[in-house]
Amino acid sequence: MNMKHKAFFLLVTGLAMASFAPCSNGNAETELLSLKNTYKNEFLIGVSVKDSQFMAKNPAETAFVKGQFNSITPENLLKWDAVHPQLGKYRFEESDRFIEFGNKNGMFIIGHTLVWHSQTADWVFKNAQGGDVDRETLLARMRDHIQTVVGRYKGRVRGWDVVNEIMEENGSLRKSPWQKIIGEEYIAKAFQFAHEADPTAELYYNDYRLEVPGKRKGAIALLRKLKAAGVTVTGVGLQGHYDLNWPKPQEVDETIADFGRLGLKVMITELDVDVLPSRPGGAGNADVSRKEAADPKLNPYKTALPEAMQQKLARRYAELFGVYLKHRGTLSRVTFWGLTDGDSWLDNFPIKGRTNYPLLFDRSYHAKPAYFAVIDAVPVAPVNSPSQPQPAVRR
Ligand code: XIL
To answer: pTM here?
Structure first.
């Protein structure tokens, strides 16, 4: 067993006893095998979280988040419908606790997300008569939302997904209510309002399937235009909702390089690897409005993932992190969309009630072969260990 894997035993033993808590002096923590320590010289390693994972309802789970990751994104609780459910009414109880957790633990907090077409209540786009609201009113609502939310967490949230999923597959702008009512300018305005509310925060455009050349081309043209107009955009988030075959490593490589050439930071913001069969056209299509009918053939691993598939997933993660490491410097963060397989949205998207295995930890918080593949992707000189590392089979 090499030193990295040996240290992991300390972590899982501690979790099993539900008594693990990183030592406040930091020494014990650095002895543990963790994603964040392994990647500390490369890029941030983040995870999306929900309330049970930071509200000490389950201390072992919270310790796990703190032990493995140095950046957190709220899976749902900062979306418009969560913090701003009615006109003039904001709700910050959950998000305040989330921010407090991240700040207390020195984590790089991501605000997800300010302007999106989904999880935004209808009232935002409607007038009192139920028709479309006028342009000026919608701009005013957007400004109020951004200034209130970003302003509240000024200096505490380090980066915001300002606009989410704004492009169509063919590289044109998505015909969202934002686009239809305000026009293209809504994008520049969203960045402007966010920058005014917190000039120190990093500001991102986040989207899926930017690895598709046509969509990427449209995004690059848009970002060039924003830059030329003096709009503050810090980076681009590639959501990273992948499967075992799509995208090819070369497509990921080119995508990071293309955005990097614009002088932007690039992040993988919602990484997961779907291992279940999909209907044609499903790969990486994270359009949340997709809903497909159940079919037992599309849910083949109800009780467990076969070992051959575990290894395939591990190789896929190794391949992806090989590309990510090539781009250290440009790539500033890799965030997983969920802590364990049991938390993943892919258990219910695009088909409800399936058993998926897209992440690094299984439903019992055990590290999967994919975890060790990600750890082993970082080359380190072995210390007091055999020259050939043992296979990563601890499950
Ligand atoms: C998903 C959440 O994981 C689900 O819990 C929720 O029901 C729908 O949204 N792209 C995004 C994320 O930017 O916010 C989405 O998260 C997944 C796709």
So the answer is: 0.91
Which of these, 303, 282, 300, lies nearest to 291 by C-alpha position?
282
Nearest of 322, 206, 316 to residue 268 by alpha carbon: 206
Closest ligand 1 atom, residue 206 Cα? 13
- Is 319 catalytic? The answer is no
Measured at the alpha carbon of residue 346, what is the angle toward residues 342 and 352, in degrees to the nearest 5? Answer: 95
Domain hosting 224: range is 35-376
Q: Which residue has its alpha carbon closest to ligand 1 atom 13?
A: 164
Is residue 265 one of the residues assigned to a domain?
Answer: yes
Q: Tell me which of 337, 343, 348 to substitute to probe ligand 1's pocket, judged by most ligand atoms within 8 Å of the beta carbon.
A: 337
pLDDT digits (tens, 9 = 90+) for 163-197: 999 999 999 999 999 999 999 999 999 999 999 99
- As for how many domains the chain has, the answer is 1
Residue 238 in any domain: the answer is: yes
Write the pLDDT tens digit of every residue in 214-228.
999 999 999 999 999
Residues with CB under 6 A from ligand 1: 75-76, 164, 239, 270, 286, 288, 345
Catalytic residue at 42?
no
**Among 61, 202, 211, 270, the one annotated catalytic:** 270
- Altogether, the residues listed in the chain come to a count of 395
87, 127 contact by CB (below 8 A) = no
With respect to residue 293, please indicate whether it lies within any of the assigned structural domains: yes
**Other Cβ atoms closer than 10 A to 145:** 20
Is the CA virtual torsion 92, 95, 101, 107 positive or negative? Answer: negative
- Distance CA(62)–CA(78), nearest Å, equals 19
Q: What is the pLDDT of residues 118-157, one digit of tens each?
A: 999 999 999 999 999 999 999 999 999 999 999 999 999 9
Which of 215, 223, 268, 273 minimizes the C-alpha distance to 244?
A: 273
| Domain assignment of residue 257, yes or no | yes
Query: Mind listing the pLDDT tens digit for each residue in 259-318?
Result: 999 999 999 999 999 999 998 888 888 999 999 999 999 999 999 999 999 999 999 999
CATH of the domain at 51: 3.20.20.80
